[in-house]
Amino acid sequence: MRTACIIPAFNEEKTIKDVIEVVKSVKIIDEVIVVSDGSKDNTAKISRDMGVFTIEYEENKGKGAALKAGIDNANADILLFLDADLIGLTKQHVISLLEPVINDEADMTIGIFSNGRLATDLAQKVAPHLSGQRAIKKEIITNINNIDMTRYGVEVALTKLVEKENYRVKTVELKDMTHIMKEEKLGFKKGIAARMKMYWEIVKCLKM
């Protein structure tokens, strides 16, 4: 079975290189796709310079649209989704997410941070369905209608689908891993505004 890693990215020039380097070192991944979703920094250039197939949007379309672009271009049976702002990602994290799906022990895995930072650990324990780190069989995700319209609600849409259809889900601990928070990227005021917008998109998806 072929596997593809899809990395949606919006202005992640500080972290995307490290994420790509780890992913490319994992032998069970056959292709890597980065979707630069309206980035205004060097995100897309870094990705291309590393030899990764890169899709570049001029304007930000949202995480759902970025993932759909990756899915549509992936020649794989199993898809791995990773955020571009991860800190502490290792080969073992990637393998732990993929192997249960490859071995048909699960239809989808969800990665949950632990022992990284209190804020991100707590957020994922409270709402694990919001995690962007997951592996899934491609045939499942094609059953989500209008995934490109879900924006930040895409993880909720995925979780709702597998619950509705009784797919097998396995939670995977991602020890010593975290990510850069919006308030750190954008500054406190802009970060809070972006977080509120994200939560609103998630709430809308929950109501669907």
> Would you count the extended β strands for me?
9
Helical/strand content category:
alpha/beta
The CATH topology is: Spore Coat Polysaccharide Biosynthesis Protein SpsA, Chain A
| CATH homologous superfamily placement | Spore Coat Polysaccharide Biosynthesis Protein SpsA, Chain A
Radius of gyration equals: 16 Å
Distance N to C terminus: 33 Å
**Spatial ordering of strands, largest sheet:** 3-2-1-4-7-6-8
Shape: globular
Helix content: 40-55%
CATH class: Alpha Beta
Q: Please give the domain count.
A: 1
Q: Tell me which CATH architecture applies here.
A: Alpha-Beta Complex
SSE succession: EHEHEHEEHEHEHHEEHH
The residue-averaged pLDDT reads 83
Proportion of beta-strand residues:
15-25%
Main beta sheet strand tally, sense and closure: 7 strands, mixed
Number of helices: 9
Notes on the structure:
It contains nine helices and nine strands. By secondary structure, the chain is an alpha/beta fold. The protein has one domain (3-181): Spore Coat Polysaccharide Biosynthesis Protein SpsA, Chain A. Strands 3-2-1-4-7-6-8 form a seven-stranded mixed β-sheet, with helices on both faces. Strands 5-9 form a two-stranded antiparallel ribbon. It is globular, with a radius of gyration of 16 Å.
